[in-house]
Amino acid sequence: MLERLNQAMEHIELHLDRPVDVAELARIAATSEYHLRRMFSALAGMPLSEYVRRRRLTLAGAEVLAGRETLLEIAVRYGYGSGEAFARAFRAMHGVGPGEARRTGAALSSQPRMAFRLVVEGSSAMRHRIKEKPAFTVVGPKARVPLVHQGPNQAIMDFVRGLDKPTLERLEALSDQEPQGIVAVCDDLDPSRAEGTELDYYHGVITDAAPPEGVSVLAVPAGTWAVFTTSGPAPQAIQELWRDIYTQWFPSNPYRGRPGPEIARIRLSADGTEADAELWLPVEAEGPRG
Known about the structure:
By secondary structure, the protein is α+β, with helices and mostly antiparallel strands.
């Protein structure tokens, strides 16, 4: 997987002066567009579109300083329809406009080319299982919240604190299958998975029972799920598990992510500092790797 992903990275470098076709990148990487975006975001720490933008502005910066072409010619080459749009993007990355950079020879920022490799750390195996699951529903209160990669998600914490205990107890009684009990469900995430983009957050149960009035319902079709478990400090252990799944497990296993909700069953210690967690991710088997 990583070898094919690096071939896709080389394709980006050869096409920075024209629109980058994500479908073609996915073909080169021998995976789906959905999984490619997820993999890239997890491995690179930024969305694929942001990396392409920063690489273009890095090359554009070098050409601005070289002074051989007009600023408008450089802007058009790297996909900007006007000098004003180019200047805004250039300043956002480099902290200075292209005209001023050319006049003063200012120091500019740089986005290095990326290549990926698998680094195996430690000797403990990642605990996981593959589960075929029939269709089910998620039932519970829902909120639209921002995505947070590191540290507590205050919007989710505030939402959960506002839920009354009797409602949660009634919901928990409806839980009739794995993962059991109250779960956290994230759905409708932005494909880029960029920090601050929004998602639907459900605080409810997995069930086939009829839902009570006043709660949201998410129908989930039958499919394959990869189930991971971890224990450790909250929320770091859970966020590190997310990272390890995409940087270690997916590159080493014949599965890729597929669209669908992501489900976490989290049980906190009495003081809230430690967590036992089970993470369910929708996956599908990859085709033969060429």
